[in-house]
Amino acid sequence: GAGVSQSPRYKVAKRGQDVALRCDPISGHVSLFWYQQALGQGPEFLTYFQNEAQLDKSGLPSDRFFAERPEGSVSTLKIQRTQQEDSAVYLCASSLAETEKETQYFGPGTRLLVL
Amino acid sequence: GQNIDQPTEMTATEGAIVQINCTYQTSGFNGLFWYQQHAGEAPTFLSYNVLDGLEEKGRFSSFLSRSKGYSYLLLKELQMKDSASYLCAVRDTGGFKTIFGAGTRLFVKA
């Protein structure tokens, strides 16, 4: 079956522009995570959804970042008024259930460059 | 605070064994994961430990000591394709937040 997909794969934005990043999780996966990965670093947790409920958004760096998953499947991460420090790879991951040991399956990421 | 430490880089020879260490200091603990990440690609799951001891899966094994806040990933019979970054990650209690280390870049040479 298909894995986690993300679009676009690459995005170049001018400082101040708004961007929207899409994640299509594996069908039937309850849990969905967003991470930000800077070059040479590990992924940093941004937010977590269980179905359509956003249960943890403690990792969102500012109120310019907003995520939604209105129907419990596809999710969108929106960044308003992008800044250069937002340049990173944004990874989406999904897992089948809501138990802690469930493996997360990662998408290929969206590489965002803010000029 | 939350802190996960791993060596930045390691080099090993094809066919050899390599051990990648990870120490963690987190406010809670609900399991430790190891992921492999090739350059420009998504992380892929390797192992999960929640109890002390060794978990073996083919050429890969992972060990956990909760009292010491320590884990290692052991890779046997190294192959060139094992050249990648290896990420140690700890799941926090009370939720699903997962904290990743910066990763260890492993170079396998012929």
Give helix % range of chain B: under 10%
C-alpha Rg of chain A, in Å?
13 Å
The profile of the biggest β sheet of chain A is: 7 strands, mixed
Proportion of residues in β-strands of chain B: over 45%
Alpha-carbon distance between the two ends of chain B: 40 Å
Please trace the helix and strand order of chain A, writing H or E for each element: EEEEEEEEEEE
Any overview of this molecule?
The complex is a heterodimer of chains A (115) and B (110). Chain A has 115 residues and is an all-beta fold. Chain A is 0% helix and 48% strand. In chain A, the strands form two sheets. In chain A, strands 2, 4, 5, 6, 9, 10 and 11 form a seven-stranded mixed beta sheet that branches. A four-stranded antiparallel beta sheet of chain A has the order 1-3-8-7, with no helix packed on it. Chain B is built from no helices and eleven strands. In chain B, the strands form two sheets. In chain B, strands 2, 4, 5, 9, 10 and 11 form a six-stranded mixed beta sheet that branches. In chain B, strands 1-3-8-7-6 form a five-stranded antiparallel beta sheet, with no helix packed on it. The N and C termini of chain B lie far apart (40 Å). The chains are: A mainly beta (115), B mainly beta (110). The interface between A and B is medium-sized, with 27 and 23 residues.
Main features:
heterodimer, A: 115 residues, mainly beta, seven-stranded mixed sheet, four-stranded antiparallel sheet, 11 strands, 0% helix, globular, B: 110 residues, six-stranded mixed sheet, five-stranded antiparallel sheet
Compact overview of the structure:
Chain A is mostly beta strands.
List the helices and strands and how they pair.
The complex is a heterodimer of chains A (115) and B (110).
Chain A: E1 5-7, E2 10-13, E3 19-24, E4 31-37, E5 44-50, E6 53-56, E7 65-68, E8 75-79, E9 88-95, E10 105-106, E11 110-114
Parallel strand pairs in A: 2-11
Antiparallel strand pairs in A: 1-3, 3-8, 4-5, 4-9, 5-6, 7-8, 9-10, 9-11
Chain B: E1 3-5, E2 9-13, E3 18-25, E4 32-37, E5 44-49, E6 53-57, E7 60-65, E8 70-75, E9 84-91, E10 98-100, E11 104-109
Parallel strand pairs in B: 2-11
Antiparallel strand pairs in B: 1-3, 3-8, 4-5, 4-9, 6-7, 7-8, 9-10, 9-11
